[in-house]
Amino acid sequence: MSSAELREKFLEFFKERGHKIVPSSSLIPDDLSVLLTTAGMQQFKKYYTEPSLAPAPNVVSIQKCFRTSDIDEVGDESHLTFFEMLGNFSFGGYFKEEAIKYAKKFLESLGLKIEYVTVFAGDEKTPFDEESYKIWQSLGVKDIRKAGREDNFWGPTGTEGPCGPTTEIYINGVEMWNIVFNEYYKKPDSTFEKLKTLGVDTGMGLERLAMVSQGKKTIFETDLFQKPFKLLPAYGIDGRVLADHLKGSVFLIADGVSPSNKEAGYILRRLIRRIAVRWRTIGHKSFELFIPEIEGVINYYDFYKELMINKEKIIKEINAEINKFNKTLENGLNEFLKKYPEIEAQINAPKERGTYKSHDLKVISGKDAFYFHQTYGLTIDIIKDLVRQGGHSVDEESFNKEFQKHQEISRAGIEKKFGGHGLLLDTGELKAADEAELKKVTRLHTVTHLLQAALRKVLGEGVKQAGSDITAERTRFDFSFDRKLTDEEVKKVEDLVNFAVGKKYHVEMKEMAYEDALKLGAQHFFKEKYPARVKVYLVGDFKVDPPEIFSRELCSGPHVKNTSEIGRFKILKQEAVGSGIRRIRATVE
């Protein structure tokens, strides 16, 4: 079967069994705890905690996915960055027995025989999945293997969410289908609680299914790579890497990503620059040869209408990024290859790759790698790509030390300008790359104090902070509350914060003993360990007697001096993240 036929058959199989077909969501997820959509269940994540919101109790989808965790393995038999995930999902509609039977029956409908399956062996946190073991036995599967948490306990996507034991199906030695039984919710503090509604989440890579059903040895021999690309398959491993990265770039741009230096845009830029390096090292500079390959992807993947709609934009974005980078790349490559002529010789003689004797192999020092990174923009990825072609390697550990040393120097400069606040750049709560972003983060950090105070004023003093995460784009604030906020309550909170902004309250800091701060009623994060002396930030009008205090909170982060610097506060969304915990995402304009 072609990949198109496999997609159709999968959707129809589950539609006939009471599943609603749901289209793929964007590669840019609603879940801001992850940069890109990495799994089919991501768009359904909230339905495992709030099943009443689901479009149906049982759904089926084919989801576009993108992962960078295996980017260095791309080019072997089965690893990719972009792939399609076939999945069936249930939010209280059915559980283990039905899910396992569906999977076995669908594979048999393709004429495929299960080689063996795995189930979760259990550990000190979660018991052995005996139920799945017995179901497979009852279906006549003889080879049932037990595996640990690393292999057979999945999730969550991001730092928290639904998760549970899995059973995996193998055919011809390839992991084919992963069936997750969402029984638990992992909280931000890494503890688990039982979900009220049990759910099913399955994932099967279309590329691997095509490889097995089409009788191919690698995913790159399937129609998913042989049909769209005319030129690249002739270049062996280089061609595979180029095809994967080009396909991933096409889909990212179609979903609204543009090359940049942060978040999803950085991943796209990284992909395109790796394309430019590979293309250059196999003897090409012109982008024109890529256009038919891009068009091939767009035409062959007509299942995804957004590709054709964004065709001109896709070609333009890739072309612009490659041309922009080529100016830097040319100088950097020339200097790098001049320093390492043996690598240049191997690049120019591709048939001899891998033939150097061990005494000819080089380890590029971290100091050299960082020099080319800083001076010519050759990232560690690019340098690794270059040297790997000859079997050489890079001392990544010493590169990371050089990079860290550089960051410390840069941080010291920011500290000087921001009074020590630069130290907060890597705490995990605040995320900023430069001074401009740090200014935005400072506004967002301060407004988060106002948000907590407003929530307590509107919802009651039972509201306590349960976590936060602040980037240059938004603030995310988790708090204890046992129900969804009404639209009226959300508006009251938003209006109250903007009231405090409009009052042009001053922000003052006082140092005091931790116990004294608590006596004053200063808000604090109950999971945080505080030193004996703490900083308390107060927001209010200190010219009146007594002072009009809007917010009083323990903190050591960066703050504006006056709330008028914050700008207009806007709540983007609210959601549940666990039992008794709500989350608000907001920004300032």
Automatic annotation (TrEMBL):
Keywords per UniProt: Aminoacyl-tRNA synthetase, ATP-binding, Ligase, Nucleotide-binding, Protein biosynthesis, RNA-binding, tRNA-binding
InterPro entries per the UniProt record, alphabetical: aa-tRNA-synth_II/BPL/LPL (IPR045864), Ala-tRNA-lgiase_IIc (IPR002318), Ala-tRNA-ligase_IIc_anticod-bd (IPR018162), Ala-tRNA-synth_IIc_core (IPR018165), Ala-tRNA-synth_IIc_N (IPR018164), Ala-tRNA_ligase (IPR050058), Thr/Ala-tRNA-synth_IIc_edit (IPR018163), tRNA_SAD (IPR012947)
GO biological-process terms attached to the record: alanyl-tRNA aminoacylation
Enzyme superclass (EC): ligase
Domain Alanyl-transfer RNA synthetases family profile: 1-589
GO cellular component, as recorded: cytosol
Enzyme Commission code(s) on record: 6.1.1.7
Xref: PROSITE patterns: AA_TRNA_LIGASE_II_ALA
GO molecular function terms noted in the UniProt entry: alanine-tRNA ligase activity; aminoacyl-tRNA deacylase activity; ATP binding; tRNA binding
UniProt similarity note: Belongs to the class-II aminoacyl-tRNA synthetase family.
Name of this protein: alanine--tRNA ligase
